[in-house]
Automatic annotation (TrEMBL), chain A:
It holds the Pfam family MoCoBD_1. This is Carbon monoxide dehydrogenase large chain. The keyword Transport does not apply. SUPFAM superfamilies: CO dehydrogenase molybdoprotein N-domain-like, Molybdenum cofactor-binding domain. It comes from Thermohalobaculum xanthum. Keywords: Copper, Metal-binding, Molybdenum, Oxidoreductase. Gene3D superfamilies: Aldehyde oxidase/xanthine dehydrogenase, a/b hammerhead (3.90.1170.50), Aldehyde oxidase/xanthine dehydrogenase, molybdopterin binding domain (3.30.365.10). It comes from the Bacteria. The keyword Lipid metabolism does not apply.
From TrEMBL, chain B:
This is Xanthine dehydrogenase family protein subunit M. Transmembrane segments: none annotated. The keyword Repeat does not apply. Keywords: FAD, Flavoprotein, Oxidoreductase. Residues 1-176 form the FAD-binding PCMH-type domain. It comes from Thermohalobaculum xanthum. The lineage of its organism: Bacteria, Pseudomonadati, Pseudomonadota, Alphaproteobacteria, Rhodobacterales. It comes from the Bacteria. GO terms for molecular function: FAD binding; oxidoreductase activity. PANTHER family: XANTHINE DEHYDROGENASE SUBUNIT C-RELATED. The keyword Flavoprotein applies.
């Protein structure tokens, strides 16, 4: 026996398992500039691809003349749709069941669309040649407004499917209509609306924006003609799905394709989809026999790769006079751009937008979403949120404010009155979800107490008075939000992407000396998986997190998984990790019992060891057990210590949070100063509080960007007006306010460790909170709702329209 | 975001530089900090075949505070900010320079490039007009001086001939006790002005200039006169009568006009408060 016996708590601390604010192991390389991103990959003889893109939003491509381009020294090939057509690769399937042109096939549908792919020995030659490809366009009428796109005489955008009455998600009722997705009970909801004491109604636009990750999208494709193997390094949030899709569309057997996601510089949904650049690089590599790199620049990223949001949401909310919500009605016109390339689970063409009843016990609801084609870039990805969940939270959290104004009830009180109560969980919502767990009242009370809510309201009322007396030109706004996320897609029974069930996986190997490697089907893009998944495992198998390597992103070594987006890694792959860990522990128990010469049931788990029940001095620590697994012939037990788990989650998880934002608005300039931002998050079991805080800070900052200025704007001709970082708002430290973070812990009852996911909550809750604060500042003057983004001139316009400029 | 091909020249004397410029003609552009020119080249909105880098010409560097203040064209915005003698002699220069872009841009961007560029978004031109500065130009035919107030014709069009190089900026000392302010509204760090106003008020009169509210900086003589006479409202009205903002992503002209008034009013208030 040891002389100094560490207590179980001391031993647990050494593991740096669940609850430890362990430093991010990734940061050692990132902070030294030693990360390995796609553009760092350099292969011998590598060629570079670059796109000729359409300057027009809608035009016929009459002819393409690449002769001059081919004369540029260093140019190897110029690919057009005509070159891809014989391979059947001039179009590709989208994740949403539509198809998309890889290179313009007769026409273009948005500005920046890929028209030709130039391949050259260096980037400079490729860029020069791009300038020399002569494309003869014949301009066509442009539609950038989804409502106009549905008018009877609107121009036909998708001539390829103009006569098709059925789409991937049911009937199409117009040549520019994609689908209608309906949920809930329309008749019952409209009856409630008709009979309600009060109905608040508002059109709420969640503008088009873009995830704009620090690293843009790109890949290196390398076809080895000798062994027939295609390797693609790329910015992929779902490497296995890319492998399967690549195999299906190229005809190359799946075992001959290897997809590698190296370090990824942020994804936020932008890197879920499959882009023409990937296909063209692969084809170019097959044609030339050389590796081909393609990395888009910032303007291409903003203009052509997947956007987010662009939802016109008409909401109606019914309530009794005293503020009990009785029904919610919502119709969304969803602008999908020229192709439907949303990245949602197949059966959910509007994602999980039907979480739009939010945190409230709303007895009936109805929702319909109409997807529409316009002359804008395709996309519609979940930008730091689960599928369309930020849109849903924005709708309900704005509607609550609108209703509070109409009822003359304090918005905090209105929320409290309608929250789903703790004893109602698991709670079945009117639009079909089963919320796993929650304690909304406790979180709300904690948040309001933390910010001194009553005092804020008193100060705000004083401010309005001084404003009216002419003593100040600044108004004060208090933004409230209580959001419920739905993450962790998802149960295979209803969640799949292109037929691939949305389970995830973990494979663990324990090495003889008691360290380990775990491989997962997910891929970190900044979330810190190498840090946190090791922590989950440390707590499950008693090996210090520091001794566990986490590896992701290589389809030749990682078990099959659906990747990282929609806050699904911890709920799904994290669960798989815990489950695989438990398999390890089960075998370790048998080994320990054998070594201790007792029956399997006579040992019990104690942090990092199995101890004989009732005799804690007799134990086998995990390191000893690991060694025994490799050097002892144990009757009835195979050598080695490995496990794999494929986890099909029984349900989604439902993180929630209570946010409060206080702003001071300069009525004369439209400038908004964020005085205070308080964020309480409940993500169930907290794996690494430091990483949670970092994720919350990052998510709130992206929410700030979206709410306060970030947008992809088009003019009537379909020109992108915000194609550079001068006009596309990405906050720096200067614009970013101080955040106060807080938490409650309500574990998920169905997740092995009770964790729910957190990376996206702050975006889901943050956007409505900032927006509510700005709108609230003008409430005293009769203002109800203004669309985001709340940049200076739009805020100024609220004041102007209210006559506050005298 | 890759510029077209170009030849790079790095002359060591002003004579060599002007020689190259007249020899190469239209196909050449001088390069200072490159923080306006290179973005334009990457967008292929500018495609000079020759770049004449002024970085090695010692004569274009340095700040001298004498009878006048002389700022060499190749002085970076950061050097201007860091120069104590200059901050004491003409604090408005420093206050305005600190509102340009961000530290990264200011370390490389030059004062000469900023005033020579001719982009109405640049902050220095309006500032120099407000201060009554003069620009020294050197060309094949010798040197000359042009007042900042006469220099700007329209966007990217200035009084500088294509074969001339701007060598320095001469700023008169403001009279003792002159109040000053530069007020700029921008959407974020690193942004050009939605509207900006430069104001000085002193014993010798007042001066008012506005940035990014027309196709060139606007120095308003009438506004200066009104302000010198103590009529702040009249000064604002006079300046607003001379600007001609356009719609862009920062907002419609109506909004900019309003903000221009607010910026100018605030600049006047601060300048007055600082009068000695
Ligand atoms: C992100 C960003 C934000 C910015 N924000 C601001 C801002 O808020 N306010 C602001 O004022 N500026 C801003 N700028 C511009 C910056 O200040 C530039 O540095 C400046 O406009 C040009 O100076 P330069 O030395 O970089 O000149 P360059 O880019 O090298 O040259 C600009 C032009 O002037 C010509 N030129 C340069 N020097 C001379 C000379 N001595 N004689 C004749 N011609 C010459 C060049 O040929 C070229 O046409 C910003 C730039 C960036 C990249």
């Amino acid at each position: 026996m040891n002389e100094i016996t560490p207590t179980p708590a001391e031993r647990a601390e050494k593991l740096k398992g669940l609850g430890s604010s362990r430093k991010r192991v990734e940061d050692v390389r990132f902070t030294q500039g030693k990360g390995n991103y796609v553009d760092d990959i350099k292969l011998p003889g590598m060629l570079f691809g670059d796109f000729v893109r359409s300057p027009y939003a809608h035009a016929r491509v009459v002819s393409i003349d690449a002769e001059a381009a081919k004369q540029v020294p260093g140019v190897v090939a110029v690919l057009t749709a005509a070159d891809l057509a014989p391979l059947g690769l001039h179009w590709m399937p989208t994740l949403a069941g539509d198809k998309q042109m890889v290179l313009a096939d007769g026409k273009v549908l948005f500005q920046g669309q890929e028209v030709a792919f130039v391949v050259a020995t260096d980037r400079y030659a490729a860029a020069d040649a791009v300038e020399l490809v002569e494309v003869d366009y014949e301009e066509l009428p442009v539609v950038t407004d989804p409502f106009k796109a549905l008018e009877p005489d609107a121009p036909v955008l998708r001539e390829d499917i103009a006569d098709q009455k059925e789409g991937a998600h049911g009937a199409r009722r117009h040549h520019n209509h994609i689908f209608t997705w309906e949920q809930g009970d329309r008749e019952a909801t409209e009856k409630v609306l008709a009979e309600a004491d009060v109905v608040a109604e508002e059109m709420i636009y969640y503008h088009r924006t873009h995830p704009c990750p620090l690293e843009t999208c790109g890949c290196v494709a390398s076809m080895d003609k000798v062994n027939g193997k295609l390797t693609v390094w790329g910015t992929f949030q779902a490497p296995h799905a890319v492998r399967t899709v690549a195999s299906l569309i190229s005809g190359i057997a799946e075992h001959n394709i290897r997809i590698i996601s190296p370090d990824i510089g942020g994804g936020f949904g932008n890197k879920v989809g499959v882009y023409p650049g990937y296909i063209c690089s692969i084809v170019a590599s097959i044609v030339t026999g050389k590796p081909v790199k393609w990395v888009e620049d910032r303007m291409e990223n903003l203009m052509a790769t997947a956007f987010a949001r662009d939802y016109w949401m008409q909401g109606k909310i019914a309530a009794t006079k005293d503020g009990r919500i009785t029904g919610l009605w919502c119709h969304v016109t969803a602008d999908h751009g020229g192709f439907d390339a949303c990245a949602d689970p197949t059966k959910f063409p509007a994602g999980f937008f039907n979480i739009c009843t939010g945190s409230y016990d709303i007895p009936v609801a109805w929702l319909a979403v109409d997807g529409v084609y316009t002359n804008k870039a395709p996309g519609g990805v979940a930008y730091r949120c689960s599928f369309r969940v930020t849109e849903a939270a924005y709708l309900i959290e704005r509607m609550i404010e609108v209703l509070a104004i109409k009822l003359g009830i304090d918005a905090a009180e209105l929320r409290r009155k309608n929250f789903i109560r703790k004893d109602q969980f698991p709670y079945r919502s009117a639009l079909g979800w089963e919320y796993d767990s929650g304690d909304y009242h406790t979180a709300w009370d904690k948040a309001l107490a933390a910010v001194g809510y009553e005092d804020l309201r008193a100060e705000q009322a004083d401010r309005v008075e001084s404003f009216r007396r002419g003593e100040t030109r600044k108004l004060m706004g208090v933004g409230l939000t209580f959001f419920t996320e739905i993450v962790g897609a998802g149960p295979v029974k209803n969640c799949d992407i292109l037929g691939l069930g949305m389970f995830d996986s973990c494979e663990i190997r324990i090495h003889p000396t008691g360290s380990a490697i775990a491989r997962l089907g997910t891929i970190s893009q900044g979330q810190g998986h190498a840090t946190t998944f090791a922590q989950i495992l440390a707590s499950e198998i008693g090996i210090p997190a520091d001794n566990i390597t986490i590896e992701e992103g290589d389809t030749d070594t990682a078990p099959y998984g659906l990747g990282t987006y929609g806050s699904r890694s911890t709920p799904v792959a994290g669960a798989a990790t815990a489950m695989a860990g438990r398999k390890i522990r089960a075998k370790a128990q048998m080994i320990a019992a054998y070594l201790l010469e007792v029956h399997d049931d006579d040992v019990e788990w104690d942090v990092d060891r199995f101890v004989v029940k009732g005799a804690p001095e007799r134990f086998k620590a995990m390191a000893e057990i690991a060694f025994a697994a490799y050097n002892q012939a144990i009757p009835g037990i195979e050598p080695g210590l490995e496990a794999v788990s494929y986890y099909d989650p029984p349900n989604m998880t439902y993180p929630f949070g209570a946010y409060v934002c206080v702003v001071d608005v300069d009525v004369d300039t439209g400038q908004v100063d964020i005085r205070r931002f308080y964020a309480l998050d409940d993500c169930g079991t907290r794996i690494n509080p430091m990483i949670i805080e970092g994720q919350v800070h990052g998510g709130l900052t992206e929410a700030l960007a979206i709410a306060m200025g970030q947008e992809i704007a088009y003019d009537e001709l379909g020109n992108v007006k915000t194609g550079t970082l001068m006009d596309f708002f990405v906050p720096t430290a200067w614009e970013t306010p101080h955040y106060e973070t807080d938490w409650t812990t309500t574990p998920s009852p169905h997740h092995p460790i009770g964790a729910k996911g957190v990376g996206e909550s702050p975006n889901v809750g943050g956007v409505p909170c900032f927006s509510n604060a700005v709108n609230d500042a003008f409430r005293a003057f009769g203002h109800v709702h203004a669309h985001m983004p709340h940049d200076h001139w739009r805020v100024w316009k609220i004041a102007h329209d209210l006559g506050l400029h005298g | 975001m890759i510029p077209g091909a170009f030849e790079y020249h790095r002359p060591e004397t002003l004579g060599e530089a002007t020689g190259l410029l007249s020899q190469l003609g239209d196909s050449a552009r001088v390069l200072a900090g490159g923080h306006s020119l290179i973005p334009m080249m990457k967008l292929r909105m500018a495609a000079p075949e020759h770049l004449i880098d002024l970085a090695a010409i010692a004569d274009l560097r340095g700040i001298a505070v004498g009878d006048d203040i002389r700022i060499g064209a190749m002085v970076t915005q950061a050097e201007l900010i860091a120069h104590d003698g200059l901050a004491a002699a003409c604090p408005l220069l420093r206050e305005a320079a600190l509102q340009i872009a961000d530290p990264q841009v200011r370390y490389v961007g030059t004062v000469g490039g900023n005033v020579a560029n001719g982009d109405p978004g640049n902050d220095m031109p309006g500032l120099m007009q407000c201060l009554g500065a003069r620009y020294s130009l050197a060309g094949p035919g010798g040197t000359r001086e042009v007042a900042a107030r006469d220099f700007y014709i329209s966007a990217y069009e200035t009084a500088r001939a294509d074969d001339e190089i701007l060598t320095g900026i001469l700023v008169p000392h403001p009279a003792p006790g002159t109040g000053y302010a530069y007020e700029k509204q921008k959407r974020k760090i690193g942004d050009y002005a939605t509207a900006a106003a430069a104001v000085t008020i002193g014993r010798n009169g007042a001066s008012v200039a506005m940035t990014n509210l027309a196709d060139r900086p606007i120095w308003s003589e009438a506004a200066g006169k009104a302000l010198a006479a103590g009529d702040a409202a009249g000064a604002v009205a006079a300046a607003l009568a001379e600007i001609d903002p356009g719609d862009d992503n920062r907002g419609p002209a109506e909004f900019k006009r309003h903000v221009a008034g607010v910026m100018l009013r605030r600049a006047i208030d601060r300048a007055r408060a600082r009068m000695g």
